[in-house]
């Protein structure tokens, strides 16, 4: 029988642990014997996380620095996921977006050092590159963020890496768009949008088609954070890693989604001026820490179909729980 590593001396502080990625990451880390502390506003509800003896959940706003500081006590490592996490939600109220995604970032890094946190992983985004002509966009390329959301991601990266030292092991991750099922579902990301419409309307619509869209299965996203946690300090300190699966065109993604259904799914292609094409290389993370993806877009689609069949997703074309922009409009956070 495989000898499981004892992780119970580690208490991972997950800021934003009740989000789409966080909800699955928390469950995985608990299954690996970690203690986990989630600090989150729980914008998408509390029931997305399990009851577990090794899980502490703290409802709070990360802009409340005193509360954040108290909550860090006893934690050993940080994974920072919390934010207003897409362009439209950020643009809804850019002052709010900046206050959450940027203003409290540096104080949080400083308090992590004061609280003797060992390692800090920051969820940036591959959108920091903007649009590049190069076939393989690697971590050393110049950042040309096109939106405020991406701009502040890039700014936080710089801050974190400036604090990199033997006291705080820092790592920046630039994930592709995540896809698949989570107990806190998002249906506003490309593969999930198409699957939702295929399942519920027998029809999907794509704008353009040739543009490349890198994706990563949520299970791989979770494995990726876990790999970084378990990588020796010398391999991850001060490092930046892209994390994605293949770069597929929208046409190809639509075909993959369609092929996962027995029913005939109509694919409508609408012309668009938005020819932005993204493509990232995930070679560095493979070569330096040995992380490779195990799941594809088909797996994500099939997991979502399974969730629909089991009625786990309720009123999925309208329910604001699945759409960040709708939820932010609804709660009118200040
Ligand atoms: N999902 C993707 O496709 C994707 C791709 C690249 C990068 N990322 C990054 O990964 C991270 C996680 O993404 P996600 O899809 O899970 O996002 P999400 O929106 O599902 O989760 C964000 C979490 O942050 C919490 N939060 C927001 N404001 C807060 C505040 N003021 N105080 C405390 N908590 C607050 C929310 O309640 C939510 O639980 C984000 O940083 C995102 O930018 C995500």
Give average pLDDT, whole number. 96
* Overall form: globular
Distance between the termini: 52 Å
Count of individual domains = 1
CATH superfamily: NAD(P)-binding Rossmann-like Domain
- What amount of the residues lies in strands? 15-25%
What is the name of the CATH topology?
Answer: Rossmann fold
Number of helices: 13
- Secondary structure: helix percent: 25-40%
Show unreliable segments: none
> What Rg do the Cα atoms give?
19 Å
Structural write-up:
With about 325 residues, the protein is an alpha/beta fold. The chain has one domain: 3-Layer(aba) Sandwich (Rossmann fold). The strands form three sheets. It has a seven-stranded parallel sheet, sandwiched between helices. It has a three-stranded mixed sheet with strand order 7-9-11. It is globular. The site of nicotinamide-adenine-dinucleotide (NAD) has 28 residues, from helix 1 and strand 7.
Please sum up the structure shown.
This protein is of the alpha/beta class. It has helices at 20-31, 65-72, 87-92, 94-103, 105-114, 148-162, 190-201, 218-229, 233-236, 250-259, 283-289, 297-309, 324-331; strands at residues 11-15, 35-40, 55-59, 77-80, 119-123, 169-175, 177-179, 203-207, 212-217, 239-243, 247-249, 266-270. It has 13 helices and twelve strands.
